[in-house]
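Table S4 entry, N-acetylglucosamine-6-phosphate deacetylase.
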Amino acid sequence: MIIKNARIFSPDFTFVPGELSFEGEILTDKGSGQVWDVQGMMIIPGLIDLHFHGCVGYDFCDGTKEAFQAIAEYQARNGVTGIAPASMTLPEETLIRVFQNASDFQWDKGAVFCGINMEGPFFSKEKKGAQNPAYLKEPDIALYRRLQKAASGKIKLVDIAPELAGAEKFIAEVSGEAVVSLAHTTADYDTAMQAFAAGASHVTHLFNAMPPFTHRAPGVVGAAADAGANVELICDGIHIADSVIRAVYKLFGGEHVILISDSMMAVGLEDGLYSLGGQPVQVTGNRALLKDGTIAGSATNLFDCMRHTVACGIPLESAVRSATYNPAAELGVLDQMGTLEPGKFANFVIMDDDLKIHAVYIRGQKI
């Protein structure tokens, strides 16, 4: 197939006029067969969400075929063609069941499964956020190994509070096989820098569940900037003020920002009472709160987060990179997706100047 008269997001992160061709599942240099004139609309790589929990009434940690399928299909309909769902702080036996089921599931419809983001249980009680404090643990390499075995090696990110006992040893040993991210932490600047020196390279939902960034105590945020770490940002209009979004892009540069949704099961549904990690969550609009007022994930999908990022003043090119190339590189799937280059999956979104989706393709199939 050939899609012509488009503005295509190129591998150098600019939009260029041209055409996009694919045969079967794969993008090609030259196409054949059907021709579609999109009359100047934009084509971008499918978005990749490496940190979200659920949508349309399902949570990744439900661990069922029905949940996995509903999640993959919802994401696909909304322009997210690659996913790395996140777990929660739960009992080991629950996580083993979820990870094993996710590894065994045939992810052949909807968004492409890129791996698992292991969020918890190695977190600080003081910054637990919506994580269940009953199951928090100090870093445990043996536990991680058991979970990674259950996941058949599909854990791509593992989150940790670096101030906990044994954290530095854990980071040094695990960082060679998964991205280690600082999260749900009380760490100061020096502790965070030691963690980055040991092999951590990522920060989970920047600013949330960590000490604030101040002029005398820069904390994890300042350390991440000095270490050149990649940082997640939830741009849903709730978690991060628009001014701070603009400041993060100035401080880190577009090459280090990864847009995430951190969405929970209420996304795609009406307001009401839902759950996250076994705890009740009240959702009103796109705000999700625990009973004590703690923000519990988001109620916004990644494409809407990207739209909000652009609306608050970030150039479209930077926002698209942060939702496509950057997460693909972090998950180690850049050889398959993240850019529109021959040989990669035909995963892409056709959208207009208002960032309204007109079509989504995954592995060459129109969704």
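The mean pLDDT is 95.
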